[in-house]
Each structure stands twice: as structure tokens, then as C-alpha cells.
Amino acid sequence: QVQLVESGGGLVQVGDSLTLTCTASERTYSRYVMGWFRQAPGKEREFVAAVEWWNSGNTYSAGSVKDRFTVSRDMDKNTMSLRMDKLKSDDTAIYYCASVRAQRTSARYYSPGAYEHWGQGTQVTVSS
């Protein structure tokens, strides 16, 4: 069973930057997607960003973070990163890494229910 481990979380100030990293113990399928989700206290888990793990690696981002967060991959190291700029207090949450085999429609990548493997999460706290 593939293991996903997140790292890089912490306490930062509003306006700061932070980079999260997800390391996968192995490549799960020949074509799959890795994604970032987050969950704030009392709220449902929500999609943040995702990247395809084949060819050019299309990326997907939630509208709320599209201009501030950048997802990237390192296929040699089997890692995915999330660069977060201009952090807001609303970004405070536990951030999770997840993976899923390639789906017929990319709309599935926005749904946490589609993902098969999950990390334990890393806390990001943005203080004002």
C-alpha cells in the first residue's frame, strides 16, 4: 500500500509564503493524479490543487487559491509540492496529500471522495 507523507506545515503570518511537500513511497499506477486538500475546524475537506503524474502534468487549482498557490511535481523524487504565497488567515487548516488513478473526467479530481490514498496531514496556521 502506497504511503503519502506531508511535510512543511507550520505557523506563519498573514502575507507570508510556505511550501508543503508530499512524498510518496512508490508510484501507484502508470497514470495517476496527486492532489492537495485542506480541512479547517468545523468545515468539510476541500480541494486545493492537483497535478497529473504523466506526460506534461496538467494542473488543477481551486478558484480561491489559483492566484496564490502553485502545485508542482518532481517525478524523479516522487514528490509533489504546494507553494503557497500571500497566505491569509482563511488558509488555516490541515493540509492533506492524496492520490488517485487517472479518471475519465478531470472533474473527479476536485472531489475528495475520488481519491484512494491519503496522508496524515500537516497543520498550517496563518496568524494575523
Report on the architecture of this protein.
The protein has 128 residues and is mainly β. 0% of the residues lie in helices and 48% in strands. The strands form 2 sheets. Strands 2, 4, 5, 6, 9, 10 and 11 form a 7-stranded mixed sheet that branches. A 4-stranded antiparallel sheet has the order 1-3-8-7, with no helix packed on it.
Indicate the topology.
Blueprint: E1 4-7, E2 10-13, E3 18-24, E4 32-39, E5 46-52, E6 59-61, E7 69-74, E8 79-84, E9 93-101, E10 117-118, E11 122-127
Parallel strand pairs: 2-11
Antiparallel strand pairs: 1-3, 3-8, 4-5, 4-9, 5-6, 7-8, 9-10, 9-11
Q: What assembly state would you assign to the polypeptide chains in this entry?
A: single chain
Q: Tell me the β content.
A: over 45%
E-strand count: 11
- Put simply, the count of helices is 0
Helix proportion range: under 10%
**Class derived from helix and strand content:** mainly beta
Q: Helix and strand succession?
A: EEEEEEEEEEE
- Unreliable runs: none
Question: Overall mean pLDDT score?
Answer: 95
**Biggest β-sheet strands, sense, barrel:** 7 strands, mixed
State the separation between the terminal residues, measured CA to CA.
40 Å
Q: Compute the CA-based radius of gyration.
A: 14 Å
- Outline, from the CA principal axes? globular
